[in-house]
Amino acid sequence: MATFDACSRTWQVPYRPAIFNPCANLGQILINVLERAPEKIIQLNVDTDAVVTCTQMRLRSIRFARFLTSCGYGKGDVLALVARNSCHVVPVVFGCFIAGLPINTIDPSFELREIVNILRLTQPKLIVCDADRMAVLRQANEQLQLRIVNYGVLLMTPTDELMPDCYSIDELLQKPCDGESDFVPQYLGDSNLLTAAIVCSSGTTGLAKAVRISHAQLITPYGRISQLDQNDTILSFSTLFWISGYQMLMTSILNGIRRLITTKLATAKYAIELCNRYNVTILFMTPSLATDVLLTLTDSERLRSLKIFAIGGSTVPLALRQSIIRKVLVEGQGRCVVGYGMSELGGPVSYEMIPRENSVGTLLSGIKAKVVGELNTPLGPGETGELFIRPTHPFLGYCGDEQATAKILDEHGFVRTGDIAYFDHDGFLYLVDRKKNILKYDGYQISPSELEATISQIPGVRQVVVVGIPEPGREFNDLATAMVVLNSNEKRSADEELTEQTIIDHCAMVTGGQPAHENRRLRGGAMFISSLPMTASGKVRRDVAKQMAINFHRNTLASKPQLSDQ
């Protein structure tokens, strides 16, 4: 458990050394691990049934690293990867780790302005992309005039011919190179300061930042986990464009676990199909997708192979977790676990080793935390404020944005998480909401997450997000407004139909039918929509949702008949 130091006003757990040496570089560790079980199938593409063994992964990674060095690329040169999951993506990533090139993974579904934003920050010298992304990347380069020497093309689909400045990644990875059988990665320097990957921040309230992740940050948390074994299979729809994708990849490789990949859209029906077909034992999902799985399974169905159902990426309502335990997992076999982390901290911060209601667990070894009040005063147990975290390995900063880097760090190396949280007296961490999501009305602070958890308990509600819209004439006040997606599969009688007033009344009352506190009221009402705006990683785009709510209220007012002055 985390303990509180009354002198420094910080929280931490007893130190436990990492299983793998964080002083080593990723290339050294990955090559060593892949050599240990050469015939083990480490990756399965469920779209094509193509498998990759540890030996194949090792050789392809070495070949790509050797290609990079032969072209003159070296330590610190950024490579941008804009590609969907394929058997070649991981060797490209590992090849960059070996050669010392920071790899900037970009979601191929990004629009031109989003791609331009990230490339402006990271300034890559080489781009590897899917063939159908070539055009938009050329447009981006025309705007930015990057010093790109070559384009690599991941051939996900056949193309008639390669451009003069393109390489076929498939050909590069299949062609043997001299010395690959006894290849030993070069030591590249301090892994605490060496950038391995550049990932996008969540981008839920605007354009994403480019977060630098060190070699040490990708080594320390993912060593042998006692509950896992080499017969396990891991499924996550997170791609390497987000830190959760790297978490799943490193958990797979460093623990010798088969990992499933797919280019298909993440849906509940497809996730259930894959779990049953491949006996998935470890499943990671966002709360929104987990909710859909819960609603898609019939009363008699269970995901019988699951050992761990992990949920993360945003707030996990207690009701969702309890329903998964009751309706999805086999009693006595599977666990539903939650954790907490963020890109700037290199991944996980806390993990729920011991379940406690509404908690995201206790801190991982080596991490220090403090809760800070509005006057920048460190708070004690049970007191709510902004959560500051000093990770095991230092945050390297935002690529191309020194101002944002300075803003997020305090003078002692703690990262301002932007999350409102508290620790209980036993050292368990509880998240209240994102600081920037907190709404205010006449001096009251309103937590959207609390309202969302309350509304999600209503039968028939599939998804909900609560945003604040300005009160007419009093723009400093936020009117809490719920945007609700209903479960279309649920049959309801006329008396059971959910209405806006149903949602408002539910929030206005607490257990026992007593009126709720003023900070639990939906003063902006509720609106029903077919789907919520989401990021590619499965998080709600709150900026887009807020604008939708503002437009809805504006149109509603405009449609009302205006009273005559006479």
Descriptive overview:
The chain is globular and about 75 Å long. The strands form six sheets. It has a nine-stranded mixed β-sheet with strand order 4-3-13-12-14-15-16-17-18, sandwiched between helices. A seven-stranded mixed β-sheet has the order 9-8-7-5-6-10-11. Helix 8 links the parallel strand 12 and strand 13. The chain has 566 residues and is of the alpha/beta class. It contains 15 helices and 27 strands. Helix 1 runs antiparallel to helix 2, helix 9 (268-278) crosses helix 10 (287-296) and helix 10 (287-296) packs parallel to helix 11.
List keywords for this structure.
alpha/beta; nine-stranded mixed β-sheet; disordered C terminus; 566 residues; 27 strands; seven-stranded mixed β-sheet
Gross geometry: globular
Main sheet: strands, sense, barrel: 9 strands, mixed
Low-confidence stretches: 156-162, 562-566
How large, in whole angstroms, is the Cα Rg? Answer: 25 Å
Q: Whole-Å distance between the termini?
A: 71 Å
Number of strands: 27
**Structural class from helices and strands?**
alpha/beta
Whole-number mean pLDDT: 87
Q: What percent of residues are in strands?
A: 15-25%
Question: Which strands sit side by side, in order, in the main sheet?
Answer: 4-3-13-12-14-15-16-17-18
Helix content: 25-40%
The helix tally amounts to: 15
